[in-house]
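Sample 3 of the quickstart, ligand 7-methyl-guanosine-5'-triphosphate:
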Amino acid sequence: MRVTAEAQPRRAALRRWSAGANRLSALIVVAQLCATLAWVVFAWSAGNAVEAASQGKALAPLVLLAFVAASLRATLIWGADILAVRAGDRTVTAARREILEAAAKYGAQFLAGTDAGERASQIVDRTGKLAGYTANWTPGVRLAVAAPLIIVAAVFAQSWLAAILLFVSVLTLPLFIWLTASETTAAARAQQDSLDALAGAFQARASQAGLIRAFRAIGRETAALAEASQNLRNHTIAILRIAFLSTAVLEFFASISIALVAVYIGFKLLGIFPIETHETISLAQGMTALILAPEFFAPIRRLSALHHDRADGVAAAEMLANWLANKDKAEVKRLPSLTAAPALRFANVTLAYGGVPALSEFSAEIEPGEMVALVGSSGAGKTSVLMALLARCQLSAGSIEVNGVALAPGESLAESVAFVRQAPWIAEGSLADNIRLARAGAGRAEIEAAAHAAGVFSFATPDRGGLDLRLSRFGAGLSGGQRQRLALARAIVRDAPLWLLDEPTAHLDPDAEAELLVRIRDLGRDRTVIIATHAATVMAACDRIIRLPAPAQRAAP
Ligand code: MGP
Ligand code: MG
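Result:
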């Protein structure tokens, strides 16, 4: 098969994730092959026991041998199943670890782009689909080639024509493979996509249930969920249809072939087979061949079921590999913390996210200890300039110098920065815990002082528990302005020489804004402060204004 460009990352990823399970996979094949050999011994001893019984000879040793062989086979298959579960676990763990390590190393940017429910489903469910690929499919393919050869050789030792009858039936296999392989991967991909979509749709609506009720949109949103689940149902039925069709084809030919062997051996034993085949078959040989015949098809039949493991695994690997390939390649390197307010110089800077330009040809110089307002229309790239200092977007041209030294790609000033984002992130826990996120070692007194300076006590009143006020996940219960005060308290606790403030007063009333600006001025005295803003009051409070060109006026990248 030709290896397409898209197949390569998928194959490489599958190889990488299943590498830890290769030894287990080989062990599974060995155990299964030993089980097949045990079945040959069982068939031989059972066949000979029947013959011995018919001739009135002692059959105890043969029955004992058959029992031992059957027990051995059961034990080997049980062991192989346990190994398969382990092999699957290792693959899934490797894939999940790679995704989570990538998030830790390159930032979670590559997780953006769709809603949380869909991503969670992808990280948990899609990686789960990889288990069947290494645990079942990989050993299953090897077994489907090797085990029938053992059986056919054993049948050949009893009757050459019976062996040939079995072997000829294998020629129908290409039809079966074509039937399954042509459609299943595409069908599995569509099914997994619809599962992700349903998970995403459900999570998005569950998290906004209150809003949905408030807008009386329950009926509409329920219909959307019903549609997503119907979609999943349709795709699942499509897969089952292919599975039933391919299994039916295989079962049909396997039954015919086993029936032919049975008819031939039966007629031969009765001595009424009309054609001369130059062989005589004893009762023991006939019984042995008959017991072995169904086993010839067992691994091939299993393969039919396993094909869906393969399709699921391939579709999941394809999606995950493409997804991982999209992560920003540059590893983020946090530069050691600066000791004093830095001087910054942007020279003809062009910034991009995943190759898409966000800002072109931006130049500016900022002195140590200066407080500047970064101004421009919405989408001009203010946030992106701040992000660039944290290596959260790519510097595709120009240079950013810190104290005269250019930042190399991936180098981040995160250790020296207090960053107040447009929408501060809030964790479940108390207000004090949330402020302490900025610096793990901060003491209670420091946190109280910062909270006071940032005006947090205006809403963390004693009757609400003060700094022990509990915040729920994502800060539900706090207004936009209250969140910004909390974020500013964090910045103060962090005690960094460079402050990057992204519209810190956007949600404040004029009085609160004026008060906060005085505080920023005061606390930012010995720091370099960049404030991205649209507010004239903020601009007026700053030493200087740096304007970004409007997005439409940008030079071509
Ligand atoms: P910006 O830097 O967020 O603009 O976006 P600004 O000036 O902060 O806008 P405001 O509304 O906050 O006032 C500049 C360009 O970069 C826009 O075209 C955005 O679409 C794009 N962009 C910004 N961010 C933060 C991202 C991001 O995280 N990922 C991607 N892919 N694009 C982004
Ligand atoms: Mg912005």
